[in-house]
Write a structure and sequence with these properties.
Elements: H1 3-20, H2 22-49, H3 53-61, E1 66-70, E2 78-80, E3 87-89, E4 120-132, E5 137-145, E6 157-161, E7 169-173, H4 174-180, E8 187-190, E9 195-204, E10 213-216, H5 222-231, E11 244-248, H6 257-264, E12 268-272, H7 273-277, H8 286-291, H9 304-331, H10 333-341, H11 346-378, H12 380-387, H13 398-425, H14 428-433, H15 444-466, H16 469-494, H17 503-514, H18 516-550, E13 559-564, H19 573-583, E14 586-597, E15 614-618, H20 634-638, H21 643-650, H22 653-659, E16 672-675, H23 677-684, H24 689-696, E17 701-702, E18 712-719, H25 726-729, E19 737-744, E20 746-747, E21 760-762, H26 764-769, E22 773-783, H27 789-801, E23 806-810, H28 817-847, H29 849-857, H30 862-909, H31 923-944
Parallel strand pairs: 5-10, 7-9, 16-21, 17-20
Antiparallel strand pairs: 1-11, 1-12, 2-3, 4-5, 4-11, 6-9, 7-10, 8-9, 13-22, 13-23, 14-16, 14-22, 15-18, 17-21, 18-19
Length: about 950
């Protein structure tokens, strides 16, 4: 028999066997299709959500040919790169492209005069404005752009209603409508000129679905607003942005590079679709020649994380397919024995098993690709709303999908290789009688597995410290393979754990240990499903923890601040406080605070230089008061520090003051506020009776101990008064007086040095004693949750009614997108683990049908079959999850070591840069996978397992 005809027969046998055993074949196909589906969905989603160059241009230009804009330096000749992002004045140095702006002619640039002859254009210009909403008022952008013009298609799309057709009509983005509680047909009023507009439709920006803005026709907002301001000086004039021109070139010509160069001569920048998609050679780009740059496209490099994930995904496909073919070959051993009795040799027996891999692997790969595309299309709206970008179209790339399917097919065949070899070694008698025989477990394989596990971890860690992507990926795979080699020993150990357990779990554990050849591949399949997810989840959680550490809050979390923006609004402060307490979810007592200053108030007399006073806290000299990461010797010290040592220094009071230099609510450089014990308890969160008693006794509370020396702090005040400050200038004639006072203070523990916006709390009586000026400045509140859009808009409207001289500041915290990613990962891993556990348990159940028949024959109760199936599933799922967690942590740790190396390098260049690179386990994800998923899998297995079995009569 020729090789070709032999394989044809093997494929025919495999196809008929698959059709004969439809249930088992479906399980095998599902096992292969599951990872292929995930990889396909990820590929299509990534390609579709990444805009092409043409789609990026459409988001900027709509259907126009080009975008013309002034360079902002007058009618001065400029040079630009084809994408208009890099430009400079003709005689300017490439290193300082905007230096000519200071000396340029301030005359306006005639942009329409630079357009190609026969071109058509529309203008776009935005202005920030305050408008009314259903809840109150909101500050947003109003863009004057003729949205009904065909040139805007692709840039702004109508989703409901109609385009504006008149001076009193606007359209709103969907996100604006959702935030404000308005809808199509609502009316909104522009505060200031009090112009009212009707919202005629809702629009979306495909490239920015989260944009909040209103769109009106040119001349509908800015011109009437400016006219109202000219008539009434109380109306603040509009602060308009730069105007741009969307241009449609002559038919069939567009806007070529020659037109761009012509416009550059008059100080105009041009973003041309034609030029970007088909750029000229560098020899024709003056900017490239002068700046020594090139416009060649930049090729993206694969990151270490991406390469590692790809390697883990391929290994996952192999491991998920392995147990399917192992059990399938065992179920077909009688058929394989018949092949031997008909004269088939061992190679032909192996070919039949491998042909099963080809048939079922091909079907699984094809089904996985098709299902991946289908699921991506079905969940496309959800993905778009989550990412904030509308897909141009589903970007399906056949070569990539064929490669994914080929990987699924090839790995399916490779997974069938080991069962094929085992089947070829069996004698015909064993195959026909179904006897498995007994053999001792290999002692060499676990030893090799331990060596591979240790070596893989070492290689991955070494790759992490050296930044070698290949070593990380290779070491992670070797470590996981080593762990796989240890699975049979681990499974065998499970049998010893069930001695004192009830019957069903004891039988499940002993069955797993007795049938290691069946249990080990099932555990490996679940382990593979969990390992990749745990790697990503661990890395993502660690990065999220790093971002949380690096995030500098503007306020103490869980608080809001009502702050006076104009000193003349002090009398209306009670109204603003009442509005805040009425509209926000305030908890606890209000904490009022005030400003303190010396001389004339700099918030009022700031127009002239040195026309107001100052108040500063003097930091004592000495090593304990100076941050060693600043100044001379900082870099030398940084070279000797570990990441933990650097973290401790960064969190010390002396260094905290260096990077927390922003004032949360404009308390000045001194960060001194006037307040009482309420500020300590509600904002500082310092619940110390001694500190409250100190304030009551007139002793300031110092939050940053670096400014204290022997329990005292030094205040330097410059009592300088402006001639315009008639009230205070008269009793303080002459030159400015400089005073230095030493104050006894209560020094708070070091951790309170990081309190946002406050360095010291001064009692009113202390300020009066020092001759300082004070005034109420606002209030601090503890809130149950961060103010919602509706609450913020309601408060803003109330502030306007109270005089509008206040603002509300809230702490929104860092970005929470990582939490959403972790939730998605946990759900995905749970589904994959449930599927893998269910499929492998189903295969194990089919393989153990004889044992279940024996149970029924000896009178086992019907529920035993259900509970046994449930506990078998729990054993497989739980063991696989725990081993997968160990396997997944290895690449995550290695990747974090890469991040640590980069962070340490950056820290040694800039000692004040954080080098904190934590490794944090995703305990929520681990809890879901280790508890919820195995229990759910066990319950489902018990629910769907048949409790009764029809006894079969033994032949003969």
């Amino acid at each position: 028999m020729s090789l070709l005809s032999g394989w044809r027969a093997a494929l025919r046998i495999a196809r008929r066997d698959a059709l004969r055993s439809k249930g088992r074949s479906a399980l095998v196909v599902a096992m292969i299709a599951l990872p292929v589906l995930g990889v396909t969905a990820a590929d299509v989603t990534y390609r579709s959500s990444t805009p092409s160059k043409a789609e990026q241009l459409t988001a900027q230009l709509g259907s126009a040919d080009a975008l013309f804009s002034s360079a902002g330096i007058g009618p001065v000749e400029v040079e630009q790169m084809p994408n208009a992002t890099n430009w400079g004045a003709l005689d300017d140095s490439p290193a300082e492209p905007y230096a000519a702006a200071a000396d340029a002619d301030s005359a306006p640039v005639d942009v329409p005069g630079t357009l190609p002859e026969g071109a058509r254009y529309i203008t776009e210009q935005g202005v920030p404005a305050t408008v009314t909403t259903r809840h109150g008022i909101i500050t947003t952008d109003i863009v004057e752009l003729r949205t009904a013009d065909p040139l805007v298609r692709g840039k702004v799309e109508l989703t409901k209603g109609s385009y504006p057709d008149g001076k009193d009509q606007v359209v709103a983005t969907e996100h604006f409508l959702k935030s404000t509680g308005l809808h199509v047909g609502s009316r909104t009023t522009l505060r200031g000129p009090e112009q009212t507009y009707t919202i005629t439709g809702s629009v979306e920006l495909p490239a920015d679905l989260w944009r909040e803005a209103l769109y009106a026709d040119p001349g509908a907002v800015i011109a009437p607003w400016q006219a109202a301001s000219d008539r009434d000086k109380k109306v603040v004039p509009p602060q308009v942005g730069d105007m741009t021109w969307l241009v449609e070139g002559p038919a069939g010509v567009g806007v070529p590079w020659s037109d761009v160069l012509t416009a550059n001569k008059k100080g105009v920048l041009v973003l041309s679709r034609q030029v970007v998609l088909d750029p000229p050679p560098d020899s024709e780009i003056p900017r490239a020649a002068h700046a020594g740059q090139s416009f060649e496209p930049i090729e993206l490099e694969l990151s270490a994380a991406l390469v590692t994930v790809i390697a883990m995904a391929v290994l996952e496909i192999v491991l998920l397919a392995g147990p399917a073919f192992a059990v399938g070959a065992r179920r077909s051993r009688r058929q394989l024995g018949l092949v031997g009795t008909c004269g088939g040799d061992r190679s032909q027996v192996r070919a039949v098993v491998l042909a099963g891999g080809v048939v079922l692997g091909g079907v699984g790969a094809t089904a996985g690709v098709a299902a991946g595309i289908g699921l991506t299309a079905a969940f496309r709206p959800l993905i778009e709303s989550w990412s904030g970008i509308r897909f141009g179209a589903l970007d399906i790339r056949p070569p990539e999908l064929l490669a994914i399917a080929a990987i699924g097919l090839v790995t399916g065949v490779l997974a069938a290789l080991a069962p094929a070899i085992v089947a070829g070694r069996q004698s015909v008698l064993e195959s026909l009688t179904g006897r498995r025989g007994t053999r001792r477990s290999s002692r060499v394989l676990p030893l090799l597995g331990c060596v591979a596990l240790v070596s893989g971890v070492a290689i991955a860690v070494l790759g992490g410290t050296s930044g070698d992507t290949a070593m990380i990926a290779g070491g992670s795979v070797v470590a996981e393979l080593g762990l796989l080699a240890c699975v049979p020993v681990i499974v065998g150990f499970l049998g010893r754990l069930g001695t004192r357990l009830p019957l069903s779990p004891r039988m499940a554990l002993r069955d797993a240990a007795r049938n290691r050849g069946r249990t080990a591949p099932a555990v490996a399949a679940v382990m593979a499903a969990v390992a990749g997810t745990m790697a990503i989840a661990t890395y993502t959680t660690s990065v999220s923890a790093e971002h949380d550490y690096d995030y500098i809050p503007m306020l103490t979390p869980g608080t809001v601040a009502l702050v006076l923006s104009d000193a003349s609004g002090v009398d209306q402060l009670p109204l603003a406080r009442a509005a805040t307490e009425r509209n926000l979810a305030v908890t606890g007592a209000r904490a009022d605070f005030g400003r303190v200053w010396a001389g004339s108030d700099c918030s009022v007399y700031f127009e002239k230089e040195n026309d107001c006073g100052s108040l500063d806290m003097v930091k004592p000299k000495g090593e304990s008061h100076r941050c060693p990461l600043q100044g001379a010797g900082a870099k030398k010290l940084a070279e000797t520090l570990s990441a933990d040592e650097h973290k401790r220094l960064m969190r010390s009071p002396a260094c905290t003051d260096e990077y927390l230099d922003m004032s949360a609510f404009d308390t000045g450089s001194s960060k001194i506020v006037v307040g009482g014990a309420e500020v300590l308890t509600s904002y500082v969160r310092l619940d110390d009776p001694a500190a409250a008693e100190a304030l009551a006794a007139g002793t300031p509370v110092l939050l940053n101990s670096a400014y204290a020396e022997n329990g005292e702090v030094t205040l330097k005040a410059v009592h300088r008064y402006s001639d315009q400050d008639k009230k205070n200038r008269k009793p303080h004639p002459g030159k400015a007086e400089v005073t230095t006072d030493r104050l006894k203070v209560y020094v708070a523990p070091a951790k309170y040095a990081a309190t946002p916006g406050i360095r010291m709390i001064m009692p009113q009586k202390t300020a009066d004693r020092l001759g300082l000026h004070t005034a109420p400045y606002g209030s601090l509140y503890t809130v149950a949750h961060t103010p919602t859009d509706a609450e913020t808009q309601a408060v803003s409207a109330s502030f306007t009614q109270a005089g509008g001289r206040f603002y509300l500041q809230a702490e929104h915290g860092g970005a929470a997108r990582e939490d959403v990613v972790l939730l998605i990962l946990a759900l995905f891993a749970g589904i994959v683990t449930l599927g893998a556990a269910a499929i492998t348990t189903g295969l194990a159940k089919a393989d153990a049908e004889a044992d279940l028949t024996t149970l029924s024959a000896v009178g086992a109760p019907p529920r035993l079959r259900r509970t046994l199936s449930g506990f078998q599933c729990v054993v497989v799922a739980l063991t696989g999850v725990l081993l997968g967690t160990v396997a997944g942590v290895v690449p995550a740790v290695a990747l974090r070591l890469v991040d640590l190396s980069k962070a340490m390098e950056a820290m040694r260049e800039q000692p004040m840069d954080s080098a904190y690179t934590p490794i944090v386990l995703p305990w929520e994800t681990l809890g879901l996978l280790a508890v919820v998923v195995p229990v759910t899998a066990g319950l489902l297995a018990a629910l769907f397992a048949g409790s009764r079995l029809t006894l079969t009569r033994r032949a003969g």
